[in-house]
Amino acid sequence: MPTIPIDQIRDTSQAPDISCEPQSIEPRLDTETAGRLAAALKALSHPVRLQMMDILSRGERQVCVCDIEQYFELTQPTISHHLKVLRESGLIEAEQKGLWVYYYVRPTILAEIKELLSGFGG
Amino acid sequence: MPTIPIDQIRDTSQAPDISCEPQSIEPRLDTETAGRLAAALKALSHPVRLQMMDILSRGERQVCVCDIEQYFELTQPTISHHLKVLRESGLIEAEQKGLWVYYYVRPTILAEIKELLSGFGG
DNA sequence: CAACTATATAGATAAATATCAATATAGCGC
DNA sequence: GCGCTATATTGATATTTATCTATATAGTTG
Fold first, then answer.
1. Per the domain annotation, does B2 fall within a domain?
2. CB 3.0–4.6 Å: which of A19, A83, B50, B100 could bond A34 by disulfide?
3. A55 and chain B: CB distance < 8 Å anywhere?
4. Would an 8 Å CB–CB cutoff place A44 in contact with chain B?
């Protein structure tokens, strides 16, 4: 009695012997960097957060949350959530002055992403 | 009888009359562009897909799926899924030759993203 | 301290995503 | 057409995410 089902045995009698001429490619993006930059890109990958980055980068100084809110038809907790995502990714930073919190862009990771994309041919 | 519950009526008798000196900021990123570029960024925002972009951009020619697979410990359908996400976002394109499918980078949207990030101060 | 403000957090829920196993599609060689 | 190959699609499931309502935190004013 066969212990291996007949349909799991490969019949290679007619297997073609051609291949796709493999290239040997040396990746330059290691797993750690890929994970780190993918996390920053994920923070950027939402229309509201992109527009927040735009607003922050266009302000002449740090921008108050109460100003940011004006541009979106979203509840205050949702605004707060998006700002937190951006801040935790390192793309922006916050400074509290009394009751108000002011946000501003941190350019470091943005520059890293731009360099990565340049390497992709963009 | 009051129709509005008492705890919803604001007592403004002690409201401070200061504000945070609002800036008027002119956003330059419209909603349509934000949505389009956010979608492309989302496609990029996964470590595996970033590494795929790296591999495709480092190949001397278009890269066969069977070559791409070698770099990841993922099943073939998962590889196929990630390539599809990248292709549907416009970041890469595919060409079939016989049994094999070859992928390559499309630089247009990458360049658009880079320009956006430059505007953010990256 | 009491009333108020600006912002953040918690909790709930609906929608999107990553992955796998199983299956389908379609090209090639005999 | 048959048997094989490379790639794509389907379907299931676990995880993550975006949004809201409700509540908490903490600074300010009087």
1. no
2. B50
3. yes
4. yes
Contacts of B107 in chain A (CB under 8 A): 120-122
List the CATH number of the domain containing A86: 1.10.10.10
Q: What's the average model confidence in pLDDT over B95-116?
A: 97
Residues A21-30: tens digit of each pLDDT: 889 999 999 9
Residues on chain A touching B46 (C-beta within 8 angstroms): 38, 42
Question: How many structural domains compose chain A?
Answer: 1
- Domain with A72, as residue range(s), is 31-117
CA distances from B13 to A24, A91, A98, B3, B17 (A): 75, 40, 21, 22, 11
pLDDT greater than 70 at residue B13: no
Nucleic strand C near CB of residue A4 (< 7 Å):
no
Residue A94 phi/psi, 5-degree rounding, is: -130, 155
Taking the C-alpha atoms of residue A81 and residue A76, their distance in angstroms, rounded to an integer, is 9
What ipTM was assigned to the predicted interfaces of this complex?
Answer: 0.89
Q: Which of A30, A33, A46, A54 to mutate to test the interface with B (most CBs of B within 10 A)?
A: A54
DSSP assignments along B51-118, one per residue: HHHHHHHHSSS-EEHHHHGGG--S-HHHHHHHHHHHHHTTSEEEEEETTEEEEEE-HHHHHHHHHHHH
Residue B24 included in any domain: no
Decide if pLDDT at B7 tops 60. Answer: no
- Per-residue pLDDT for A53 more than 60? yes
